[in-house]
User: What shape does this take?
Amino acid sequence: MCGIVGYTGCSPAKDILIEGLQRLEYRGYDSAGIALQKDGALTVVHRVGKVEGLAQAVQSLDNDGTCGIGHTRWATHGVPAERNAHPHTSCNGDIAIVHNGIIENFMELRDALEARGHVFSSDTDTEVIAHLIEEAYAGDLYQAVRDACEQIVGAYGLAVVCAQEPGRIVVTRKDSPIVLAHGNGGSYVASDIIAVLDASRDVVVLGDDQFALMDADGIEYRDREGAVIEPKITHVDWDVDVAEKGGYPDFMLKEIHEQPRVVRDTLAGRLTNGALKIDELGLSLEELNLIDRVYVIACGTSYHAGLIAKQLIEGWARIPTEVEVASEFRYRNPIITPSTLVVAVSQSGETADTLAAIRDARIKGAKVFGITNVVGSPVARESDGVIYTKANKEIAVASTKSFLGQVVSLTLLALVLAQSKGKLSVSQIRLLFRELADTAEQIECILSDTSSIEEAAQACKDAHDALFIGRGMGAAICYEGALKLKEISYLHAEAYAAGEMKHGPIALLTPGFPVIVVATQSPVYDKIVSNIQESRARGAMIIAVATEGDEEIAKLADYVMYVPKVRDCFSAITATVPLQLFSRAIAVARGCDVDQPRNLAKSVTVE
Ligand code: AGP
Assistant: This one.
């Protein structure tokens, strides 16, 4: 949830750390800090709020130390405040640490340390680590960090500096991401690839319980037992400007406009000689054929991608499919057998609840297939097979392009399952694949003229509440539409299967109440038209997502956001885009921070 960085090299560390933190700000942004090492001393600066505040604070700092660590925070233990900002230090101030994760046994460790005379200056779980290292320190920082890690229980990505060891940073991790790179005159560490790309495109994703000993001339890697190990290098082919807005006012709009490319890249090379293949599934045709139950487990937007997958897998492959909120799935006793396929969907690949649900499913004997956007992420490593959504780095907290990447990947999976079960012929597969690929162009068409979407948004910007209704695929997409509106504009929005309206929610309607209806051409189109009429009868303001050329809807709705005609099974892909733009336009009109909404973070690595 937090972002950590570290640098040791031949250049002053201060600006390099700040730049790295700015790239990681999407991970958490309620406070930030750095520690610079110079002439056998550490200088620590904390600031509440965004990294920009810290950048201003250190601008005038006369410290050209070439080694340091930094942190941007998303509070879990201890309110956002200077005393709780990282880096945290030891009593003697000679040890400084930055941490991403949660220390579960910090209370008992703290009590014991305080009993032994340690004085704490924060309310965080993290600070115990600094004091444990101080206690263990006998001239070898690496050894002291190892000893400290033996005592802590929980998740951590950790970087540590010590006044007595110039130029040395010791790093380790357990369940929280750490990547390292050497190049450009130094060694870099961070919670995410995006903050080390200035060093090199060859990065190392550190494994659990491994250590990295960083110096200006290189990085030594050690395993849990202390043996020196050869790291696995991952070459990153996307470049730093992913981290730039590319001329868009915000990352969310930039990423919405990347979606046609995401659809094309995610489908690239998947259909050969009329047959679809997902080799990454790692399941033979026989094993695929044996699958008799599918669970899609995920959280938030990824869960909504699962709602769409259920309709496709059941519709095409005729396999019973449950979509499960991961935080529920992990605590109930789902029916799992060796012929159960669990599909874990996660943009970040590090959502704690989804990870725990994966572990639970594997213990119960399920095959786990991961769908994630982050190469080498825990979800990828802990699944039997993994498919990467080709969305590239997603910076805006509100998921957009990664969601479409997930929906396209899940659609591919549904087609492959249907193919393996012989439920769809080669020509049907080929036709559906072609129409799926055509959605990229249809999205470009939607993005080419968004005036009707802006208009509808202007009409809703002052509302307090809104309802999203749809049927079938339309219903699944309404949940995503409502979440987007909630999370970036703070307008209270709920989604309902339209048939449910008369069983309660319709009581909410008053004149002018915004009802957003997904009413694209589908087998239940007539039903959704009657739902529109019953809402209109209560004076609601109707905003419809409809299929181009549908004049009837224009007579019924106050605002219409048209999308090109597609087969109903692909309508979630096209209908999502106007709902993303609609939510963003309302958030902008309400002056909200579209990329970094309050109280949220891009990945939720705690339960
Ligand atoms: C969506 O816009 C949010 N960022 C959030 O709901 C997100 O989808 C959820 O936290 C799951 O994240 P994941 O896909 O990285 O696991």
